[in-house]
Amino acid sequence: MTYKDEIIRTEQLNLWYGEKQALHDITMGIRPNKITALIGPSGCGKSTLIRCFNRMNDVIDKCKITGKIFFHANDIYAPETDAVEVRKKIGMVFQKPNPFPKSIYENVAYGSKVAGITNKNELDKIVENSLKNAALWEEVKDRLHESAMGLSGGQQQRLCIARSLSIEPEVILMDEPCSALDPIATAKIEDLMTGLKKKYTVIIVTHNMQQAARVSDSTAYMYLGKLIEFGETKQIFENPKQELTENYITGRFG
């Protein structure tokens, strides 16, 4: 595989929180318009790794990173790279839905307004398209000016996805987006992820191995801050090459 086939690539990525090393020599490539799942036991570095992809770890004191992360072959940690521009292209959806205490409309329009868009027709179109892309439009189109806090948990999570889509990212990072949701809401988010990869690259952290097996194209297994194995999801689950991976997949530990 060449760099041209990858939208994000890490090379010998290491990360420390103070004295504690959380990531060790991570080298991997993420393909565009695919869903990549990161699995592994709690504390293995999954969330730390995806937070490197959009420089969310920048805001943490005593966080030190070595190695490289390329987005379209550009080093996102190079001194001349603007972290805000990186985050526009690489959006994030968190474990717990975190809508703003504003209307549904204002939640989705927020990023565009910050970017200086003031034309109401343009904002209306962005809000509608984003909600449609997040499979939420039909459920909320008649209540756009009601508080987002009145939505169910699953709807709030799809609203947060719509909010991240509104600024037209290329990559969407999802940090356990279904862990706070019931099975029906989870199924809707999984269906949504499958649809999103037509336009976007999706990277998901999940504790749910069945979810990784259902939705992802590639799976990375992490353990103690190290990337143990990375490959096609079918191969990882059916024919893992590493004993550590097999032990985790078969439930012997983790």
What does this protein look like?
It is a single chain. By secondary structure, the chain is an alpha/beta fold. The chain has a domain at 3-98 and 170-249: P-loop containing nucleotide triphosphate hydrolases (Rossmann fold, 3-Layer(aba) Sandwich). Helices cover 36% and strands 25% of the residues. It has 10 helices and 10 strands. The strands form 2 sheets. The chain has a 6-stranded mixed beta sheet, sandwiched between helices. A 4-stranded antiparallel beta sheet has the order 2-1-4-5, with helices on one face. A hairpin with a 2-residue loop joins strand 1 (8-17) and strand 2 (20-30). The model has no long low-confidence stretch (mean pLDDT 94).
